[in-house]
């Protein structure tokens, strides 16, 4: 038996979730965000499954090159723009869209000697305070950008800081700020990430930019995919590689962090933080053994974790253990690990992912 850990990627669920985006934002075009190796799901296979998207958002030139080499012809947007002027000739050759978010990038485009015709997404800071021109500089920067010889088309965008909170007033403030700043500027507008697509219809504008929801994960704290009509795409599963009959007071794993309250069976699963399973998952984090729930006990090690099998007296070496996905929301596992589902799926080792077709 080879090591049994795998991340099954269900392509039909990706397509279902893209349809869910279309239903939520019927008047907008869709930039599918596939940065970070398609949120850990595999860049090329995700883009191929989402071939109906109107464009793709990536974090860097390397990801864009992989998409073009895989035959993706739609617009590809470099969400952080270029990091070095040397990238611009490749950007031009591959016809990539760039984000311009900083004065320094603007200066490079103004001084550019090459003849390029770039499509630029002009990024404005409407309240996230991470990337983008602050409101007081936006007008002059926009004028400079549109005057650049190498710039053929300008689009307008900004990013929301709290769209995953349906009760926060901050999203409406950012929307108003963005519309005020861009008043009179020409170009398609984009603001909405997954939380805003599902929770804030007024933010949809010309282009929406879903990431997390495409992978079948709820952006809302305490929510799960099914609440939003989404289907989980990744199922991370492994198998029991040992079943131990432990005695009362036996301590389990590193630091003897969990002590058996009675004689009991303990299962060892081939999955650990070296694979991307979070080390911070606490005792009590759920898993599925042969389809029904059990709990992690003790500390997660690099390639293994331990589970309480008291409710599964018949469990045997070789039995399947689901760590998240089908039947076990990754959102719930993330809560037990003190993190967000984004971090869990992005951290899964790329070699584990395997596509599965279920149509
Ligand atoms: C990552 C990213 C998104 C997608 O956000 P989700 O919360 O995953 O939907 C959208 N826009 C930008 C600029 C991003 O960097």
Main sheet properties: 8 strands, parallel
Distance N to C terminus: 28 Å
Query: What structural class should be given to the helix and strand makeup?
Result: alpha/beta
- What's the CATH architecture name of the largest domain? Alpha-Beta Barrel
Number of domains: 2
Quote the average pLDDT: 96
What low-confidence regions span 5 or more consecutive residues with pLDDT below 50?
Answer: none
Task: List the total number of helices.
Answer: 11
User: What would the principal axes of the Cα set say about the shape?
Assistant: elongated
Compressed to H and E, one letter per element, the order equals EHEHHEHEHEHEHEHEHEEEEEEEEEHHE
Percent helix range? 25-40%
- CATH superfamily of the largest domain, by name, is Alanine racemase
Tell me which oligomeric state these chains represent. single chain
Number of strands: 18
Strand content: 15-25%
**Ligands, ions, cofactors:** pyridoxal-5'-phosphate
At the first level of CATH, the class of the largest domain is Alpha Beta
- CATH topology group of the largest domain: TIM Barrel
Instruction: Give the spatial strand order of the biggest sheet.
Output: 8-7-6-5-4-3-2-9
